[in-house]
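Appendix B. Extra example for self-study. Work through it before the problem class; the solution is given directly after the inputs so you can check yourself.
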Amino acid sequence: MPQINRDKETLYPPGRLSLWFLATSAALVGAIVWMLAGDFVRPWKSVQRDFFDRHAGLLEVKRELADRELRAPDPKDAVAVRAQAELRDLRAQIALAERALAEKGKREEIERLEAEVVEQKTRVGIADTRIKAVKGAYAERRYAYEMALKAKDEAKARKLADEIDALASDQTEGDGQRVDALVAQGRASAALDALRAELRGLEARRDAILARVEKVGSQADAERAKVERNQWRNLPMADIINPSIRIEKVVLADIHDDMVFATSPKVDMCMTCHAGIDKSMLSEDGDASTVGVRGLLTGFLRMRLGEKVWGRLEKSPTLAARTAPGRLRPWLTSGHAVLFAEPPPKDKQTPTDDRSQPLFTKQELVDAFEAAAARDGLTPEQQKEAGLRTFREVAGGKDLLAAFRIDPVHWAHPHLGLMVGTDSKHPMGKVGCTVCHHGVGRRLDFARAAHAPGSEEQRAAWTRDHEWEVQHYVDFPMIPLAYVQGQCVKCHKEGLPFPAKPELLVQPAVKEKPTDEVGKRPTAPNPKRTTAEVDGAWHPEVVETGLERVREYGCQGCHVIKGLSVTPGFPRTASEARGGDWSSPTPGSLTSEGIPKMGPSLTHVADKTTPDWAVRWLSSPNRFRPDTRMPSFYLQAQRDDHFRLVLGPDGKPVDVPVVVDPTPRDEAQMDVEQVAIVRALFKKSKSRAKDYPEVPAGDVKKGAELFYAQGNCFACHVGPGRYGPDGQLTPDSLDRFLSVTGELPAGPRLTAMGSKVNAKWLYAWLLEPRHYNSVTRMPYNRFKDQLAIDGKTVVRSADQRRADLVAYLLVFKDEAFDAIDDPFKRWSPLHQELLGSFWMEWLGKRDPKDPAKGITVEAARAHLTGVPLEQQLEEVGDRLIGFRGCFGCHDVAGHEGRQPVGKELTYEGSQDLHKFDFGILDHHEVEHTRWGWIEAKLREPRLFDKGRFKPSWTDKLRMPKFNFRAHERTAVTAVMLGLVSEPIKPGALPDLSKDPQAILAGRAVAARYGCNSCHTLEGKEGLATGWQAAQGLELAFLPPNLYGQGNRTRADWLFKFLKAPHDLRPQAVQRMPQFRLSDEEAHALVDYFLALAGRRDRLWSDADDAPLDDTPYAQPVTVDVKGAPVTFHSLRDEAKALFEAFNCAKCHLAKGTFGADPEEGGVAPPFTLSGPRLHRDWVEELLINPQNQINGTKMVQFWPGKSKRGKPLPPPDSINVTYPQLPCGARFKEGATNDDVAVAQMKAVTRYLLYHYESPKPPTAPPSPPEGGGAQGK
Amino acid sequence: MAMFDNLINVLTDPRVLFFVSIVLFLASIQFASVWTRPPIAMGIGALLVLFGIYASFHYQVADTLSKPDNIPIVIIIAVLGYLYWLAMRQAVQNDERLARGEPPREAAEKNRKVLVWPDLVYTELIAMVVATVILVAWSVLLRAPLEEPANAARTPNPSKAPWYFLGLQEILVYFDPWWAGVGLPGTIMMGLIAIPYVDRNPKGNGYFTLRERKAAITVFCFGFFILWLLLAFIGTFLRGPGWNFFGLFKDWDVNYVAELNNVNLSEIVWVKLLGTREPSFWLTREIWGFLAVGFYMGVLPVIIAATVGKKLFRELGAIRFGVVVNLGLLMAALPIKMILRWFLNLKYVIYWPEILLNV
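Solution. Structure tokens for the complete assembly:
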């Protein structure tokens, strides 16, 4: 209550009010300054300012380097030395030329010509003016003339017509003047140019050299100007006009944010802070036109330390470790990057990846300085002094690297060639940032842009330093880096169209191998069987793994995922009428989406195995096959110690299994389910066993041999093992696959088949797998009778050999597994009660006699009491098969074409977070994010039932548990996050030109049938081949490397061969099995090989196929062949003689046939196949150097010399034929060399072989006709 | 501490808090002369501040408090608490003076004139500057609580109005949107406009007094504190996911489920009491509702005029009495409906979807 100032006029003394006013006004000024300052130091502005400084600093370094390259180039850098020398020469020549031009006569001439040019230009100008004036007058008169005619004013019209004529002739004259002047001007200019031409050329070359420096310099200047010269622009208040520190953004017209009832283009402002994100200079390596940070750093050090010191230091191992790819960036951004430090104490050796380690130790630097001084011939004292002086000069000390300590936010995006880079497939302006990373691209605040920390430490650091917090209101917060690759799937649902890396398609030259012996592979298997190197230094392996797992583990059996990673040839519709075509699927073998089911068919399961085995298997598949892809529906497996055989690199299990303790009631429920399902399956199984042939008695040891050699089995299956000479069994192991690929084999483990299948079924299965499962990937193996040396007597028949294999496989049993109790033996009243409740829960709803009708509970109960236990089990079991979704992966009779049981996942990644049911688990138990949920679901699929009260067991979660390893879960989660509904317009979708598409499709087929198990594909070594070769088998007899297959064989032949393979190399160890490919699949493979070879435009034949010319020579050629003169009349004559002289038939004819070498015959593929099979240019290349085309071949190199493309070849290793001097037309060429003759000979021989060769004796039978049941496609 | 927390959770269940607040409010009027004494008032204030500090350490309260849009309600609670004490204190003092036959404190100022400049304009200017400074500081210190672009398919849970609308949003729970959004707010305004015309009592003009205007002060403060501020407080602090009630210290569990099977009066009478099905014709079906409302708005004023309001009726005359009583009854309808909802799950007294109006 203010006291009333009774003595004065006013209520408050004015002086006091003014004081108040002063104080509050001061506060107001302060508040406004505070506001402006707050705006000026907003984090993004500071970050950008910092970037400009840093970038300008680096550009300065770069300019200095480029400058120095010309002024004082590195003597070791030949290009720079040459450039500098050339520049010096040019400058001298320019000076000379200028002096020559300045000579008296020439100068006058030039002056005259220059004056002439100017004069003629003036004349052109005058003529132009005149023409313009005439044109105007002409148009006006013409209009007046037309009007006069219309008004029938003839006198006026006549007058005007005269004027028009005059004007027209005026214009003609003007045109003439103009042309004359132009011609004269051109002549004078040309004469001038001729005089100056020499000088101009010199100047142009000089400018080109200087441009390199200039460009860098002007870049640096421009960038520096942006910050330094224009600081005024960035002052508070002034910065509303045109500041250099400003928000950078891209608007993505083709990619929209989905807001359900509206969409809006994505807007990303990320590059406001990440200002260097697309600048290759800020990447580790730079690109073709720009040097990267590594180059800058080493160049800078070299410049500062001097060549001599650097020469010594650059070999330092610490330097190498620091600047190694992938290491440099973390080190420079760690905040610890220093040039040198005292050496660490001996007992405290830090590992090289410790980020606080310097680039050099101090001792290294001192040594280098002293050594450099010594080279200058100084005494030790002087050396030391000189070294230390330089040392002090260099070292603003340890802080020499200050310019290179680049903040993580300023670095360029990795793999600029693929992502973000201007020339990449995903440039910033088209794809932006949040498309892959999510987060809020329109926000500049660190926390509110919803950055995602990659680790707990980072989370803590961000919370501390950047006020980071979880953004609850952001629908799509940034995705942790581990999952980002999954966003590729957003646009690339079919897979990633990475082109094959050309280098990987080239056969490694033999001489590069660490063995002298031609044809033998290096002793150590190549550990890098990976395509990680494709396209730059990177390949998105996470998303590839994820897509592969989704496909291989049958996710799409239970979940519809539209358009994801579909194998070519699918989806397709199945038909009942297979017409004996083993390649067409039966209806039950495809999911409702037309994708082949991943598990074996169960329609005839009773033929294959016993109910006892099936119950045990169902209770815990892992116990029988630790590496099976079949998931565990019943949770016993999780209590089993050895269910997870897949180990980490340290030999310990990768995951710690979550232990779930079922109650006795749960266990009883599992028992009931397992028994019921198996009863139903076996009841429904249609038997064909009566048609199966009897199995002859087999030989176990012979079967083992077959398994690990010709049978090909070992390429896809882990087998029981091999017998040594002493009869001891060496067990096979999964390591054989894991150690090479890190992946599981394509086929199931076969170590205990004796516990599982019966002999008759296995024998029939080997005879034709597709009789049992119409979409199996198991091929028909073309077993043939084993013949004696005469080629006729049957030593062991094909049937017998199959029986050997059956005998071998069935010897092995898993006794521990066989001993598992039959749950039916535990049958108790509780089981009976549960069975009743199952029964009521479904059957109570539908009449078992007529499933279309419902029945009342009473009727159902009456039915239950009326039927025997066996029937109850079967009826419940059949419903359970539907409920558990068994039919998603297996063909089960009565469940064909059913809709999958799982939720559709086509847009799972866009699913609102609140629609993920976290149950009652809080965020400490499961991270409440999309990825947290999906990871947890894959790890422990029924986790979210924890603590929930679900008395009705059909309410419980159903998803079974898959044997995923941690990285696989991450990969699958990443892929799931990429399944989004974001509207992406065609402009942003991948434009797959034909080749990448074909490669993608072919890779999918090759992956499905495991081609890579035997064959080397795209540089990935064939696993089985590698394993065999490591044991000393010769490459020549192993499955071929398929590099350049598209160049090698003709497409039509390849297609037929893939559909129905036949024998090629008589002595090969293994035989290509028949995969029963559909036409689509075979086509996809052929296209794939053609695309890899870059040959798809020349699909079915060589463009320039031509037989040999048979027209007689004008003058016959006579040469000395094997000591006798022979005359040749045509090119074909010569070719034939040459062909015979090389005695090709010695190896390329079947043994025992006419013309073949009786000892060596039949070593190589018979010639009868060559014509329809091979491409001409490939055969030529083969003849030039066989090892370059077929690794380890026994083929002899006949000609030394150069390849067609001019590449020098290594000297032939094994020339055992001196080629006769048949010129084959080369003599018609002027100055033909030996090389020319060789090339001509090769061409002639090739053509002779492909177009004219006739077998000395017609083959008695067509070459190995395709076998197996039924008609072949085409 | 857990016991204390639980006690607070029970007390801050809105169904309890509502009655507790009413009792406390009435007590504050009744015992104004006691608690407004500075030592006692300071003691109460200190306890409340201590409780506030304690509460703000609790996760859920801290989370609510830290939202920039909730700052004003905290300021309002603090400021109004102080002002209520100040007014009451002065009223009590004046009452004592009046009882002693002295004039109220404000009487001294009665004939005093002040100048427009500097006493009015200059102080206003200073006040404007101070307000600007506060607003600038506020805007620099607190970020605008922006969320994602609006998406009709993804609404936040709970979806809350700005703090100043939370009282209205709370009324929406109990009334048809027409009433809660249009009818009642309109009536409040009409009522405020009507005050000078119906209240011609000159006592208390220009000075604070409680004894002379006890009824008027009680009714006004009840409307402002209980029916407005308390509802806004409940909306801010005690309404969580699913618009469920949560005690002050209870975590807002999104999985929490509360049984809310609300029924209409017609259903209660026809189905539950009479055991028949509801008639299909709306008038027959809702006849009980019409009767109840008719009784409440039509008959009850007459009864009041004849009984407890006899004196008031004489003073005001029929028309003004009618206006006052009807306004008062409408005001009372809000807590009555709330209580009926909480304890009888009553949804509407008259359920009349045929004309989109329910009562």
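Self-check: The CA atoms of residues 207 and 359 of chain B lie 41 Å apart. If your reasoning did not lead you there, revisit section 3.
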